[in-house]
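Worked Example 4.2. Consider the chain below.
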Amino acid sequence: MIGELLPREVRAVEASVDPPEAALFPAERAVITRAVEKRRREFTTVRHCARAALAGLGVAPAPILPGERGAPTWPDGVVGSMTHCAGYRAAAVARAREIAAVGIDAEPNEPLPDGVLDAIARDDERPALDAAAPAAVCWDRLLFSAKESVYKAWFPLTRTWLDFHDATVRLEADGTFRAYLHVDGPVDGFAGRWRVAGGLVLTAIATPR
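Applying the procedure from the previous section yields the following structure tokens:
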């Protein structure tokens, strides 16, 4: 599903179950030695997806360790993003010479918990959410997901934090969105796509080089 939101230069692999053949490199296992079983399954399967996506680029399997602020450390010359939630894991990668940044996110298509929207939405985003037709889309969750994708695309470019209120996201009914940044950086915004399928909200950004 996530691959349909990304250009052909990006390789994406997803999973709805944790395959028994999914395995970690020793350095990866060391990272989650004390993690609970749920975290271990997510961590393992999303890296299984990532290595399958890398194989689509002709990149040999390698450890994908969490780096600064938990961002995945990709092989040289590769950019990418990973996401996981209940019942879904996915990874997307591309050659850095073709794609400057990738950000993907998956969330359950359910309303945000009480208080979360107030924490993530800017005042200039609320009118559009309030006016959105109450259809099969949880628009508050979609906004959250889009902002997660924005951050995942932003951080590898800058190595700096981006707060939820540092970007204004405009969600369009045609399955696209645009993020306008309110901080200085190498880009002033991101264009992305979204969809709802299988009980999930999916968002994706792939910025051409």
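The domain at 1-209 is CATH 3.90.470.20 (Ribosomal Protein L22; Chain A). Strands lie at 11-15, 78-85, 88-95, 99-108, 167-171, 176-181, 189-197, 200-208. Compare this with Example 4.1 before moving on.
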